[in-house]
Structure formats: C-alpha cells, structure tokens
Amino acid sequence: MSYVDGFVMAVPTANKQAFIDFANRFDPIFLEFGAIRVTECWGDDVPHGKQTDFFRSVAAKDDETVCFSWVEWPDKATRDAGMKKMMEDPRMDPKENPMPFDGARMIYGSFVPVVDIS
Q: pTM score, two decimals?
C-alpha cells in the first residue's frame, strides 16, 4: 500500500497565485524522486472549531487561507529515498527559492493508509 506525507499551512490570501506558481515549480520534483501524486488544496470551506481547528493548528491570521497538501508515494522506502534527495536538491534551497508562506507554521507528518476505497 502507498505512503502519504501530509501538510497544512497558512498562506497569505494575497499570495494565492504565488502559492500555485511555487507548487507548479516544485511539485514535479517530488514526482522526479518517486512520488506518484502531489495534490495542493486551497481552503474553501474550512470551519472554525470550538476547541481546535485547522486555523489554530498553523496559527493562521485573518488575512491568511489554510491550505492542505499531500504527496503520495508508492511505499515508505521510496518516500524516504525521495525526501532525502529533495532535502539535498539545490532547487529546494529556501534562500534561493523562498516559500510564499511561513514555513515555520506549517505542520506535516507521514502516514500509512489503513483504508483506501476508490
């Protein structure tokens, strides 16, 4: 079964096109290093919760939109090798190619699918 990396970030709403452009530039690198799918989602119907929510998870400000992304890999071994290559790739240097959002407030994790219904 596949392996998934998930990301949640707060992107300045004014940077929507910059976020899309950034993703179009960098997401193909995931595919180059073995990912089978990359999906970037712009928040549309993201409710504010009473105890916790996506906004609080990334300390989103009023002028930011919560975005959710995931990278699907064929397996964990391919993911581990691919992410190592990503971190070493000079195209990913944030000094040369800064992210259009505050990466310090991005949350991420890796997951093993346990149910996959298509």
A: 0.91
Q: How far apart are CA 97 and CA 20, in angstroms?
A: 14
pLDDT at 71 over 80: yes
Q: What are the sequence ranges of the domains in the chain?
A: 3-111
Domain 3-111 in CATH 3.30.70.100? The answer is: yes
**Pairing between strand 64-73 and 37-42?**
antiparallel
Residues near 116 by beta carbon (within 8 Å), at least 6 away in sequence: 1, 2
CB contact at 8 A, 54 and 66? yes
User: Around Cβ 110, how many Cβ atoms within 10 Å?
Assistant: 14
Nearest to residue 40, comparing CAs of 52, 58, 56, 25? Answer: 25
Region 28-45 average pLDDT: 97
